[in-house]
Amino acid sequence: MNSRESQLSERLQTGFLGVIAFGLILFLLTQARFMLICLAFAIIIFSLTSDAISAFARLKVPNWLATTLALIAIAVGLLWAATTVVSQVNEVVSTSILYADRAQAALSSLSQRWGPKVQESISTFLGSMDFAGWLRTAASQASNLISGSVLILTFVGFMFSERIWFPIKIERLTGNQARADNVLRIIYSIMRRVNRYLVVKAAISAVTAALIWVIFRATSLELAGAMATLTFILNFIPTIGSIIATVIAIVVVLAQTGDPTITIVIGGACTAVHFLIGNIFDPVLLGQTLRLSSFGIVLSLAFWGAIWGIAGTFLAVPIMVAVMIVCNHIPWLRPVAIMLSHEGLPEEEPHGLKPRG
C-alpha cells in the first residue's frame, strides 16, 4: 500500500512539475515572441540556403565564396521582400480607405432589397466595424518586417559562421559517434522535409497569385499586383490563408466598383481559383511531403496563431513537421508522432536519411 501511495505521489509531483514547465514555456514564448519568430525564420532560411551551398560545393565552388554569395542574396532578398510587402499593404490600405464610402453605399443599396430590418442590422454592423482602424493596424504591423529582416539576417550570418563546427559540437555533446549521427539524421530529416514543403508550396502559391493577377488585370481593376502579392503570402497559411485572401479580394473589388453584381462575379472567380488549387493540386503535391494530420494542422494553426499571431500561422506547419519527426525518433513519444501523422505513418523514408558531410 505504501509503495502504491509513493508511486501515486511521484506521478502527481511529475504531473504538477509538467504543468508548471508548460506554463513557463508558454510565458517565455509569449514574452520573447519577436526574437523567437525571427530566429525561427532565420533557421528556415539557413536550412534552404544550406542546401544551395552544398549544391555549389559539389560544383567545386569554394565554401567561403558560396557562403558570401548566399549572405548577400539573403540580405537583398529579405530587404526587397520586406519593402515590397510593406508597400503593397500600404497601397491596399490607402485604396481601400479611399473607396470605403463607395463600398458602404453599395452594401446599403443592396440591403434595401431585403427589407428594413435587414438594412438596419447591416447598418448597425457596419457602424460597429472600424475597417479603417483595422487596415491601419495591419499596415503598422507590416512595417515591423523591416526591423525583423535585419534581426533575421543577423541570426543567419552567425549560423553560417558556426556551420562548419555544428557536427563536431553535436558529437561532443552526445559523447558518442552513433548518437551524434542519429541526432544529425533527425535534424537533416527535418530540414529536408520542411525545405521540400516550402519549395512546393511556393510554386503552388505563385500559380495561384498569377491567376488572381490575371483576373484583376482582365477586369481592369486596380491593385492587381498588390492582390497577387498578398495571395502569394497568405497561401502559405494552410486552410484559412486562401479564405482570408478571397475575402480581401472581394472587399477590394466591392470598394473599387461599388457594384454587387460585378463583385459576385469576380469574387466567384477568385473563389474558384482558390478552391481548385487548394482542393486538387495542393493535396496531391503536398500529401507525400507533409504526411500531417489535417486536424493536427488546424490545432497547430490555432495554438501558434494564439501565441505568435500572424507569424505563428506561417510557422505552424514547419514546427509541426519538426515535432512529429523528433517524437518519431523518441520511443516514449512515438504515439504523439503517430497521432500527428496523416495515416499513422510519420516516417518519410523507410531507411532514413544519411547525414551530409
TrEMBL record:
Name used for this protein in its record: AI-2E family transporter
Alphabetical list of InterPro entries matching this protein: AI-2E-like
Any matching Pfam family: AI-2E_transport
Keywords: Membrane, Transmembrane, Transmembrane helix
Topology of the protein relative to the lipid bilayer: Multi-pass membrane protein
Lineage, broadest ranks: Bacteria, Pseudomonadati, Pseudomonadota, Alphaproteobacteria, Rhodobacterales
Superkingdom of this protein's organism: Bacteria
Main location: membrane
